[in-house]
Design goal:
With 433 residues, the protein is of the alpha/beta class. The chain folds into 2 domains: 2-56 and 361-410, Urease, subunit C, domain 1, CATH 2.30.40; 58-348, Alpha-Beta Barrel (TIM Barrel). Helices cover 39% and strands 22% of the residues. It has helices spanning 37-42, 79-91, 96-112, 126-136, 152-169, 191-204, 216-226, 230-237, 255-262, 273-278, 286-289, 311-326, 334-341, 343-348, 381-387, 415-432, and strands at 2-9, 14-23, 26-32, 47-48, 52-56, 58-63, 115-122, 139-144, 177-179, 208-212, 244-249, 266-271, 295-298, 365-369, 394-399, 402-406, 409-410. Strands 1, 2, 3, 4, 5, 14, 15, 16 and 17 form a 9-stranded mixed β-sheet that branches. The protein has a 4-stranded parallel β-sheet with strand order 6-7-8-9. α5 runs parallel beside α6 (191-204), α12 packs across α13 (334-341) and α13 (334-341) crosses α15 (381-387). It is globular and about 70 Å long. It starts with a strand and ends with a helix. Bound molecules: ligand LTUXU72L and zinc ion (ZN). Zinc ion binds at residues 62, 64, 211, 248, 301. Substrate binds at residues 91, 144, 184, 214, 301. Its cofactor is Zn(2+).
Amino acid sequence: MIKNVKIISIEKKTVSDGYLEIDGKIIKKVNKGEPPIETLNQVSRVIDGKGKWLLPGFVNTHTHVGMNLLRGYSDELPLQRWLQEKMWPFEAKLDRASVAAARRLALVEMLKSGTTTFLEMYHLFMDDFAEEIQDVGIRATLMRSMIGLCPTEEQEAKLKEAKEFALNWHQKAEGRIQTMLAPHAPYTCPPNFIKRIVEEATALQLPVHMHLAETKKEVDDHINEYGLHPVHHLDELGVLKEVDWLFAHGVFLEDEHLEVLQSAKSVAISHNPISNLKLGSGIAAVSKWQQYDLNICLGTDSVASNNTLDMVEEMRMAALIHKGIERDPTVVTSIDALHMATLNGSKALQFEGVKGIKEGAEADFVLINGNQAHLQPESQLFSHLVYALNSQDVTDVYVQGVALMENKQLLTLDEEKIIYEANHEFRQVMSRL
Ligand SMILES: CSC[C@H]1O[C@@H](n2cnc3c(O)ncnc32)[C@H](O)[C@@H]1O
Ligand SMILES: [Zn+2]
């Protein structure tokens, strides 16, 4: 039980001083005031949350944490050159140990900044990662993603591997792992390959995740090659109504595309504002997206294009940038940004039990040290959480009722060793380049 804490409900938009009782994985009771003495006597542990704020953990709906050794490796290039000249040659030299070191570094960074759930789209050593997630206790939606710039037999081999991975790990780790199928993008997966992937996803009832309309070049090239915008092309292929989709980016989506997406089976879009700015891709029209029946969530993308996995920064950027570009301070409110960074994300990643701070929900939450100058006066907490919070203010992280960080100490990861090994592995990869 956590008592004496400020409990923040994003969906109700309320803050109350009270206590939270946890029973196993689940929030058993959320109440105002002091817990009854009988309950205090029954529970195994009582934590005093004085000065702290309790809210849902952050959900990062698009990243590639296998790339975590590429932070700062290539700044200031546009997407296609960045991928082809820098990312792919470096990634070709990654091995099992370097990918593991990269991911552990990412797990430290994510947990320390309050992320309780994330989506990993990657193609290397995914079984190792699923096992690690099982041990570390974080929650993740995983996929062995596919680039289809290869002969059909090779595409089919990748798809077989992706399906096996998805089936082996779906709803494993006590329900903390979900899986999806993931064609990388329309410019790396030919139409027939996308159709094959969606066919398999339909049979397995899995959602599909893909980069979409990230740059103007991507869209222009697609129109030149196929005569259609990627969204119209997906519609023509008949794949939009078959499965639940989670797209990343969507920087180049106009009303005509949003209308098509709205009529699909179900569509979530992961907004990645910092990556889109850094790669010079542009700014997605999020306030326009909000006029459609689409689930808008947030992601960081990898540290090679961000350059952190910090959802607090991402949320703040999402709440600020649209106000500036539209010259309208009323768009993308703080409560919109909080929804995007938490509850919309867990819905997009299909964790239906992660539904906020309420009785019966899975106990995924973070504690914030509210007792700091930059979070005063202790009023207008929804504003502070978006416009003033720093991810270092996160002190405790819980997933399924289990503490993964307490008073800023990680309990299931050895931070010092992980930092040492990441630097060692980075030098190893560089020596192979
Ligand atoms: C096969 S999926 C992993 C693959 O994705 C590449 N990647 C990383 N960030 C982006 C991005 O913003 N757009 C498109 N592709 C991206 C990365 O190089 C990985 O190999
Ligand atoms: Zn990406």
